[in-house]
Amino acid sequence: MYKPTLWFVLDTETSGDQVRKGVNMVHDLAWIAIDRNGREYSRGSYFFPEVFSDKKKLDRKLKLYEKQIDDERVQFANWDTVRTKFNKELAWYRAAGHKVIVAAYNASFDYERLDATEFMLHPDKYKIDHGLLKGVRDESLASYFTPEVDWMDIWMQWAASCPRLYTAPKRTKTHGWFSTAAEWVGKFEIGEDYKHRHFAIDDCEGECEILLRSLARKQKLMINTIFDNNPAEIAHKRVVRADMVAA
């Protein structure tokens, strides 16, 4: 019996303790599992107080999350409990015959922050070689993800099918290309009122919409390329090519 492919769209927010300069632990993780028709199979949304050693910093962050908590958009949880739950869901759907793809917008960020947080909470599972965390990209060592799953960068999938009429009010500083950050792509694809709110479950919902619109354009699935390509450049080339054809 045919079982549809499932995308576990996830998002992380990172304001916990610092792992290294510019890299903080994940304090907010959410996912929504959908098929290409938008049917929802699973969702979770969790806040991890344990990643804050500074109580004042935790209190400031909780103040920002008051409405999310009151509206039951997120719940407090233990990192290991959620890790086990998430991996069990991936494994269960795979065993049931679904192809499972973990997807995120700018997926390399989420991939590395999840593993970095796992390292900080369970350093005994990793080793450090010349100051680098081994396990972030080394599948032979511990990782946040236990089943073998495919990864998709929603940003890359969108870029590969980027509408040639795409525009954004903001441009990149380095090249002057139209920005393809999630907020600007969301405004183009979903509506001008779209905001990337930096709460994991809210941004998951928006990224699901971006993914569904990208999948509907029937481009090749960009699987396991999260470290290999530059989505901004690919989108730029599609838009420039359209301009050249129009000229």
What features would you describe in this structure?
The termini are far apart. The strands form 3 sheets. The protein has a 6-stranded mixed sheet with strand order 6-5-4-1-7-10. A two-stranded antiparallel sheet has the order 2-3. The longest helix has 17 residues, at 79-95. α5 (154-160) packs parallel to α7 (200-215) and α5 (154-160) runs parallel beside α8 (231-246). The model is unreliable at 130-141 and 242-247 (pLDDT under 50). It is an alpha/beta fold and 247 residues long. The chain has 8 helices and 10 strands. The chain has a single domain, classed as Ribonuclease H-like superfamily/Ribonuclease H (Nucleotidyltransferase, domain 5, 2-Layer Sandwich), CATH 3.30.420. It is globular and about 50 Å long.
Summarize the structure.
It is built from eight helices and ten strands. It is globular. By secondary structure, the protein is α/β, with parallel strands linked by helices.
